[in-house]
Amino acid sequence: MEIIILSVFVAMLLVSLLLDLPLLLALFCGLLLFWGYGLWKKLSVKELFQLSFSGIKTARGVMTAMLVIGVMTALWRASGTIAVIISYAASLIHPSAFLLLCFLLNCAVSVLTGTSFGTAATMGTICMTMAQVMKLNLAIAGGAILAGCFFGDRWSPISTSALLVCNLSGTELLDNLKNMAKTAFIPFLACCGLYSLFGLFGTHGNGSMDIRALFESEFTLHWLCILPALAVLVISLCRVKVIITLSISIVLALALCITVQHQAIPELLRTMVYGYTAKSPDVAAMINGGGLLSMLNVVGILLISSCYAGIFRGTGLLDGMKQVLSRFATRRGNYPAVLLTSVAASAVSCNQTLAAMLVSQLCGDLYDNRSQLALDLEDSVIIVSPLIPWSIASAVPLATIGAPTASLCFACYLYLLPLWRCLSRQTGRLNKES
Q1: Is 40 exposed, middle or buried (0-12, 13-18, 19+ CB in 10 A)?
Q2: pTM score, two decimals?
């Protein structure tokens, strides 16, 4: 019966993908399916409600943080924070080292903003436009952008995926960031080397874009505008709670909106809810977005996925798969088991959030060391999801920047990190997994 239920769920997701239906609809139908399984297992409606709510309680802190991040990113746009970051960063781009700088700049913006989608819509869009002007290989440029976008999606103090992993593993964000830096160092250097080689053997013209002049038509580009992003990085190092850190950044951004950008309070309130809307169409194409409402779809996905987590625990739906994975982990190790599960979960769930929750459910019992579980989740499911062509983790950024699907082949960081983890385990460079 369990195999039938899971197969029907996968079919729902695939039909939703093929018919371009909202993912939330498929996930809601899946919730009804799993409730039906719970009733078949003789659980009462009250017990199913309790199981669902227990899953929601586990992730409510992350959902709150997501909504606050939506408000913060809107104000970062309105205050000129993102415009200043992009203007300074774009001035560093030189044709002879474009692909390397493209990767590094998207890494930097994604760390500062904590969002792969937001990075793709801002720095990613700029880099892809410049690649077109320079007549570069768009697949390679798209791969460099995608890799950079997910560098910060994995390793940023305000990344929602990093917060989700902390919640799933019961660990501290700063400790996880330190552990992630250790495993990412060699893959990051190798990735820089590869993009340098691609740039040396590529062809490029002399096209350029005056990004600063474009943004100056919309914002006052003062150096103070970088303070909201800088505050997040500095305060996070002091082990301050995420919500407090984000709130301080919001206050700074609001102050800049009023004093530097001279925006009215009613306009700012609308921006916080609906997101920032630029007056210039050219600027709007790169920087519009954010806001409380922009996060509702993501929060909805997390809300329903959290219900799954509680139901799976209460009904034992995944127990059979857990036993198979436990045997595999005994022979091959925990990380290979988590990586294999991540590929399958990402392929069937079509989104990063649900995939992370499924992998945590299936593989969490393999670990006594929760920090190791958090690291293995970050080094597997968080960066594997964007390699699945039909997952929204890859489809949305690629569509945003206008890159071909072939770009996935050149998102080197997303391959090199799991490869390095597997090689390191074999050579004994990492500690033995718990």
Answers
A1: exposed
A2: 0.78
Of 269, 295, 321, the residue that ends a domain is: 295
pLDDT over 90 at 308, yes or no? no
Q: How many CA atoms lie within 13 A of 274 on its CB side?
A: 8
3-state secondary structure 391-419: CHHHHHHHHHHCCCHHHHHHCHHHHHHHH
Exposure of 70 by Cβ count < 10 A (0-12 exposed, 13-18 middle, 19+ buried)? Answer: buried
Output the DSSP codes for 230-279: HHHHHHHTTT--HHHHHHHHHHHHHHHHHHTS---HHHHHHHHHH-B--S
Same domain, 263 and 308: no
- Let me know the angle formed at the C-alpha of 98 by 94 and 101, rounded to the nearest 5 degrees: 95
Measuring CA to CA, which residue among 321, 431, 327 is closest to residue 3? 321
* CA distance linking residue 110 with residue 153, whole number of Å: 6
The larger pLDDT score, comparing residue 77 to residue 241, is at 77
pLDDT at 429 over 60: no
Is the same domain home to 209 and 81?
Answer: yes
Calculate mean pLDDT across residues 56-80: 84
Asked which of 17-21, 168-172, 191-195, 409-413 is least confident by mean pLDDT, the reply is 17-21
- Residue 165 C-beta-side C-alpha neighbours within 13 Å: 31
Q: Give the residue among 11, 9, 14 at the shortest CA–CA distance from 390.
A: 14
User: What's the number of domains the chain is made of?
Assistant: 2
The pLDDT value given to residue 209 = 58
Of 42, 33, 371, the C-alpha closest to 178 is 371
Domain hosting residue 287, numbered range = 62-295
Assess whether 138 and 205 both reside in one domain. yes
Contact 13, 22 (CB under 8 A): no
For residue range 327-369, what is the model confidence (pLDDT) as tens digits? 999 898 999 999 999 998 888 777 788 889 889 989 999 999 9
Residues 6+ positions from 57 with CB-CB distance below 8 Å: none
Find the distance separating the first CA and the last CA of the chain, reported in whole Å: 32
